[in-house]
Design brief:
SecA_SF2_C, Rossmann fold, globular, metal-binding, 12% strand, 34 helices, 982 residues, alpha/beta, Helical scaffold and wing domains of SecA, Pre-protein croslinking domain of SecA
Length: 982
C-alpha cells in the first residue's frame, strides 16, 4: 500500500461516522440543525478565547506547522472531533436546499483537507466547489477567519454566493473580497429589504427557471456591497490570491486602526492550488507609488534601439530570456546617443537595457496587449489579462514607449511579498485542483504540504490519443482546422487549446474561412469567459481557448453529445509543464462521460525549438515527407517529454531561487512589520483607542490601559533618544581615546536633536530645578551651545552622558506639557512616517543589491551567502536610521505642524503591481548588458560547457575589457578597480 492509499484509507472510518448521523439529522428541522452548529461554535469559542491576542496577529511565517503551540493543536483536535456530525449537517442542508448530496469520495477529500497541510487532486467534474466548502465551514466555527482562495474575481463572487446559500442555513456568514469591491451574502428575504421589490422578483423568476440552486445560476442577487473590514469579519471569506496578499501588505502600511481590514490568517483553502502556488509563485506581490521621473528618455531609447540590426548589433537568447548588444551595437548606440561611454551613466545603461528587452523579448498579443491606449500584461500560463499589474523598474514604460502609448510614471516599491511567504503566514493550509501530483515534490519542499490523489466517483473513460506531429506551424494549424471541420460535421463539440492570443486568432481566421461558427476565448474576451466555456459542451460547438482560459467553470454535455463521443479536446501545442497539458485534457471526460483528447504539435513549436535539443533539429532536416503528413515516432514523444521536464526543472529552480532570496528579506519584513504594528497599536492605546478585532474600543484617558500605554510610549521614545545620544557620544567623545574627543562636533550633532530655543528652555529648567515648561514671564534668552559647552567642561567624560540624558528628559517634559494629548498623536505620526519612508528606501537598496549580487560569483563567492551578509548589514543600518530620523524630528515639530500632521492620510497614487519577470526580489532579472558582453566574448572562444564553468580568478589571465565589471565582484568597472594601475 502506497502513501496515497494509506492517506485515503485512514479517513474511511470517519466517513462511516458521518453516515451514522444521517438518520437522526433527517428528522430535525432547520432550526434544530442550526442550534447544533451554534453549540459547536460556543464550544470552539471557549478554546479560542484562551489564546493570547498576539497569537492571532499574522505577521510571522510558519516554517514548520508541527511546532505550533499546544493550544493551537488542541483547537484543531476539537474540530476533528466535531467533524463527522458537522459534515453530516452540511450534507443534510444540501439535500434540502439544493437537492443533491455528497458522495463518499467528496467526504474523503474534505476530511483529508480538514487535517491541514494537505492538497487533494480531484479530477474535473468531481465537485471541488462542494468539497472545499466542508473544511472551510468547519474552521469557520472558530470565528478566526476561514479563507477560500480562487484565481479570479468572477470565481470568488460565484463561489461565495453559492456557498452563502448553504452557510446561511448553518448560521454562518459569507464575505467576498474582489479587486473592485467587497460583498456580504444576504438571504432571499433580505434581498427584498436591501435591494427592493423589483430585484426580488427578478431573482424569484430566475429561481423558477433554474429549478434548484446551481452555481451556474449565481447572478449576484444575494450579494450586497460592504466595507472590506465587514467582509473580513464574516465566518467564511472568498477572494483572489492577489487581493488577500495585497490586503496583508496594505494592513502593514496602515496608519490608523480603521485601516487594518484583514482578520487573522488562520485557515485557507486554495482552489486551483497548482495555478496559485506554482504558476504564480515567481510573481511577487508589490504595492507601489509613482516616482517622478522624466518620460523623455523612454521615447528617446525606444526610437534609438529600432535602428539596431539583429545579429550584427545584438543577439537574443530566448531560452535565457535575454538580449545582448554586440561590440558593434554598443558603438552604434553611443554614436546615436552622442556619448563616449554609455556605461558610465547608470540611468542610460538602465534605459538601454529595458528598451532592448522591450523590442526583442516582449511580443505584442503574446506577452502583452495594447487596449484603449494601455499596455496590459498577459499571464503566460492562463492567457488572462493581469489587470492592475505592471512590470517594474522602467520595463513597462519602455514597452509603452515602443507601442507609442501614453507613458505612465515609474513606480516606487512601498511593500512586497512573494506568494510562498504570504501563504506560509496561515497556520493551516489546504487546497486542491485536478493536477496536483506532478508537482508534489515542490509542494512539499516549498510549502510543507502533502499531496493526495482522490479516487473518482465514476471511472474516467476519456480516450487520450497519441500526438500528431507536423514539420512546421503552418501545416499544423491547417491540420487543426481540417480536424475541426471533420468533428463539427458529425456534431461533436470541440474545445481547442492554444498557448497564445496570436495562435487563437490565427486559428480563428482559418476556421472563419471555412464558414464554421465558433467562439474565441482569451484575454481579450474575458468578460464572456465563463459563459462561453459553459456552452462548449453543446452539439456542434467549436470553442478556441487560450491556455486554459475559463478554467474553474464546468462544461456540462448537452443531451445527445455522449452519442457522438463526448467533448473533444484538441491541444495545438505542448505546454511548458505536463501538468498544464493534463489540465487541458481534464476538461473532457468529467463524471464518467465519454471524451477524447489529442495534441497537434509541430517541430518548430516554442518548447521544441528552445528546449528540444539537436536530435529534433536533425530530424527536421532529414525528413522529406510532405508538410501536411503527420510524423509518428517514439523519438518525438521522448523529445517532447524531455523538453517539458527541462522546462519544469528550470521553473522549479527559478521558484526555489525566489524562495531562497526572499526568505532572507522575509526575516527583515517580519521584524519590521512586528515593530511597526506594535508601535501603531501602542500609540493608539495612548490616544484612547484599543483594537479588539473587528472592534475599535474607545477608552477614557483616565483608563489604566491608556495611562500605562502613555508611560510605555514615552519610555520607548526615551530609549530611542538615549540610544541615539549614545551613538553620538561614542562617535565624538570616547572616554578611552583622547583623539576621539571632539566637543564641537558632538555639540553640533546634539543640537540637531531639536531647535536651539527648546534646548535652551531645557537647560534653563535644569539650572533652576524646574520640570516642564518654563514660566512665560521669564524673558531671559540663553545660548544653548554656550551653556552646554560651559557645563560639559565641568564634567568628567564619564558624566557627560548622564548630563545630556537629563537635558533630553527635560525636552521630553516640555514637549509633553506644550502639546498635551496631541503629543502622543505626534509620536505615532513621526514613528510611522519615518519607518515607512526609510523602509521604502531600504527596499530600493535591497533591489540594487539583488541586481548586482550575481557578480560576486565571478570572484568565486557564493552570491546567496554574500546577499545574506550584505542584507543583514543594510537592515541594521535601516533600523538605526529609523531611530536616528525619529530623534532628529520629534522635537522639531510644534503645535501647528502637529495639527497638520495628525490629519495625515495614506500615500496617494498607490497601485498594486505584480509582474512575471525581473522583480526586485525575485532574482529572475538577467545580468546587465555590459556583463553579458563579457559572457559573449567568452562564448566566441569556448564551447557552451566551458562558458558555464568560466570564472574570473586572475585578471592577467582573463580577457576582461576595461569597461567590464571587475573580476573581484565589487561591481566596479575593471579600470576603476583592480585594473586601475594596469
Amino acid at each position: 500500500m502506497d502513501s496515497n492509499e494509506r492517506a485515503v484509507n485512514q479517513v474511511k472510518p470517519v466517513i462511516e461516522e458521518i453516515h451514522k448521523y444521517e438518520p437522526t439529522l433527517e428528522k430535525l428541522d432547520i432550526k434544530a440543525l442550526r442550534e447544533k452548529v451554534e453549540d459547536m461554535q460556543k464550544n470552539m469559542s471557549r478554546l479560542v478565547d484562551q489564546l493570547p491576542e498576539e497569537q492571532k496577529i499574522s505577521i510571522k511565517t510558519i516554517q514548520k506547522r508541527s511546532t505550533l503551540p499546544e493550544s493551537e493543536k488542541k483547537i484543531q483536535g476539537e474540530l476533528m472531533k466535531q467533524l463527522p456530525e458537522f459534515y453530516a449537517i452540511v450534507n443534510e442542508i444540501y439535500k434540502r436546499k439544493v437537492g443533491i448530496h455528497y458522495f463518499d469520495v467528496q467526504f474523503i477529500a474534505s476530511t483529508i483537507l480538514a487535517q491541514g497541510q494537505k492538497l487533494t487532486e480531484l479530477k474535473t467534474g468531481e465537485g471541488k466547489t462542494m468539497v472545499f466548502q466542508l473544511p472551510a465551514f468547519l474552521y469557520a466555527l472558530t470565528g478566526r477567519g476561514s479563507h477560500v482562495v480562487t484565481v479570479n474575481d468572477y470565481l470568488a463572487k460565484v463561489g461565495g454566493e453559492y456557498a452563502g446559500h448553504i452557510a446561511s442555513e448553518l448560521g454562518l456568514s459569507v464575505g467576498i473580497i474582489t479587486s473592485q469591491t467587497s460583498y456580504k451574502f444576504i438571504t432571499n428575504s433580505e434581498v427584498k429589504k436591501f435591494k427592493g421589490e423589483e430585484t426580488y422578483k427578478e431573482m424569484t423568476q430566475l429561481s423558477k427557471e433554474i429549478g434548484q440552486i446551481k452555481i451556474s445560476g449565481m447572478r449576484g442577487y444575494n450579494l450586497i456591497e460592504c466595507d472590506k473590514r465587514d467582509a473580513y469579519t464574516c465566518n467564511v471569506v472568498y477572494g483572489t490570491n492577489n487581493e488577500f496578499g495585497f490586503d496583508y501588505l496594505r494592513d502593514n502600511m496602515a496608519r490608523r486602526l480603521e485601516d487594518i481590514k484583514q482578520s487573522e490568517l488562520y485557515f485557507v483553502i486554495i482552489d486551483e492550488a497548482d495555478s496559485i502556488l506554482i504558476d504564480e509563485a515567481r510573481t511577487p506581490l508589490i504595492i507601489s507609488a509613482p516616482a517622478a521621473i522624466s518620460n523623455e528618455m523612454y521615447v528617446r531609447f525606444a526610437s534609438a534601439v529600432k535602428r539596431l540590426t539583429a545579429v550584427e548589433d545584438y543577439t537574443v537568447d530566448e531560452k535565457a530570456h535575454s538580449a545582448v548588444l554586440t561590440e558593434k551595437g554598443i558603438e552604434k548606440m553611443e554614436k546615436i546617443l552622442g556619448v563616449k561611454n554609455i556605461w558610465e551613466d547608470y540611468q542610460m545603461a538602465h534605459h538601454l537595457d529595458n528598451s532592448l528587452k522591450a523590442m526583442t523579448l516582449y511580443k505584442k498579443d503574446i506577452d502583452y496587449l495594447v487596449k484603449d491606449g494601455q499596455v496590459l500584461i498577459v499571464d503566460q500560463f492562463t492567457g488572462r489579462v493581469l489587470s492592475g499589474r505592471r512590470y517594474s523598474e522602467g520595463l513597462h514604460q519602455a514597452i509603452e514607449a515602443k507601442e507609442r502609448v501614453d507613458i505612465k510614471q515609474e513606480s516606487q516599491t512601498l511593500a512586497t511579498i512573494t506568494f510562498q511567504n504570504f501563504f506560509r503566514l496561515y497556520k493551516i493550509i489546504g487546497g486542491g485542483s485536478g493536477t496536483i501530483l506532478t508537482e508534489a515534490e515542490e509542494f512539499y519542499k516549498i510549502y510543507g504540504l502533502d499531496s493526495v490523489s482522490i479516487p473518482t466517483n465514476m471511472p474516467v473513460i476519456r480516450e487520450d490519443k497519441t500526438d500528431r506531429v507536423y514539420k512546421n506551424r503552418a501545416a499544423k494549424f491547417k491540420a487543426v482546422a481540417e480536424e475541426i471541420k471533420r468533428v463539427h460535421a458529425i456534431g461533436q463539440p470541440i474545445l481547442v487549446g492554444t498557448t497564445s492570443i496570436e495562435d487563437s486568432e490565427y486559428l480563428s481566421g482559418l476556421v472563419d474561412k471555412m464558414g464554421i461558427e465558433h467562439e474565441v476565448l482569451n484575454a481579450k474576451h474575458h468578460e464572456r469567459e465563463a459563459l462561453i466555456v459553459m456552452k462548449a459542451g453543446k452539439k456542434n460547438a467549436v470553442t478556441i481557448a487560450t491556455n486554459m482560459a475559463g478554467r474553474g467553470t464546468d462544461i456540462p454535455l448537452e443531451k445527445g453529445v455522449t452519442e457522438v463521443g463526448g467533448l473533444y479536446v484538441l491541444g495545438t501545442q505542448r505546454h511548458e509543464a505536463r501538468r498544464i497539458d493534463n489540465q487541458l485534457r481534464g476538461r473532457s471526460g468529467r463524471q464518467g462521460d465519454p471524451g477524447l483528447s489529442r495534441f497537434f504539435i509541430s517541430l518548430d513549436d516554442d518548447i521544441m525549438r528552445i528546449q528540444g535539443g539537436q536530435i529534433v533539429q536533425k530530424l527536421m532536416e532529414m525528413t522529406n515527407i510532405p508538410d501536411e503528413m503527420p510524423i509518428e515516432a517514439r523519438l518525438i514523444g521522448r523529445s517532447i517529454e524531455s523538453a517539458q521536464k527541462k522546462m519544469e526543472n528550470m521553473h522549479f529552480d527559478s521558484r526555489k531561487h525566489v524562495v531562497e532570496y526572499d526568505d532572507v528579506m522575509n526575516q527583515q519584513r517580519e521584524i519590521f512589520y512586528s515593530r511597526r504594528r506594535s508601535t501603531l497599536e501602542l500609540a493608539e492605546r495612548a490616544i484612547g483607542r484599543v483594537l479588539r478585532y473587528p472592534e475599535i474600543i474607545t477608552k477614557p484617558l483616565s483608563d489604566p490601559i491608556v495611562v500605562n500605554s502613555r508611560e510605555e510610549l514615552l519610555d520607548n521614545l526615551q530609549v530611542t533618544l538615549f540610544n541615539e545620544l549614545g551613538g553620538v557620544i561614542n562617535k565624538h567623545y570616547l572616554n578611552e581615546r583622547e583623539d576621539k574627543v571632539d566637543l564641537e562636533k558632538m555639540l553640533d550633532e546634539f543640537l540637531d536633536f531639536g531647535p536651539d530655543s527648546l534646548i535652551a528652555k531645557a537647560l534653563d529648567n535644569l539650572r533652576s530645578g524646574k520640570k516642564g515648561t518654563i514660566d512665560k514671564d521669564n524673558k531671559e534668552e540663553i545660548n544653548a551651545r554656550d551653556v552646554l559647552k560651559e557645563e560639559l567642561k565641568k564634567k568628567e567624560t564619564s558624566e557627560v552622558r548622564e548630563y545630556l540624558e537629563g537635558v533630553i528628559r527635560q525636552i521630553n517634559l516640555i514637549k509633553k506639557d506644550e502639546l498635551k494629548d496631541n503629543y502622543f498623536e505626534l509620536i505615532k505620526t513621526v514613528y510611522l512616517e519615518n519607518m515607512d519612508r526609510l523602509w521604502t528606501l531600504h527596499l530600493e537598496s535591497i533591489q540594487d543589491l539583488r541586481e548586482g549580487i550575481g557578480l560576486r560569483g565571478y570572484a568565486q563567492r557564493d552570491p546567496l551567502v554574500e546577499y545574506k551578509n550584505e542584507t543583514y548589514k543594510q537592515f541594521e543600518q535601516f533600523m538605526e536610521s529609523v531611530d536616528s530620523s525619529v530623534t532628529r524630528r520629534i522635537f522639531k515639530l510644534d503645535t501647528r505642524t502637529t495639527n497638520r500632521i495628525s490629519t495625515m492620510v495614506k500615500p496617494t497614487g498607490l497601485r498594486t503591481n505584480v509582474e512575471e519577470i525581473s522583480d526586485i526580489l525575485e532574482g529572475t532579472r538577467e545580468m546587465v548588458t555590459s556583463i553579458n558582453n563579457v559572457l559573449k566574448k567568452q562564448q566566441d572562444k569556448k564551447d557552451s560547457e566551458n562558458r558555464k564553468s568560466k570564472t574570473f580568478s586572475n585578471p592577467q589571465k582573463a580577457n576582461i575589457g576595461r569597461n567590464d565589471p571587475c573580476w573581484c565582484g565589487s561591481g566596479k568597472k575593471y579600470k576603476k578597480c583592480h585594473g586601475k594601475n594596469i
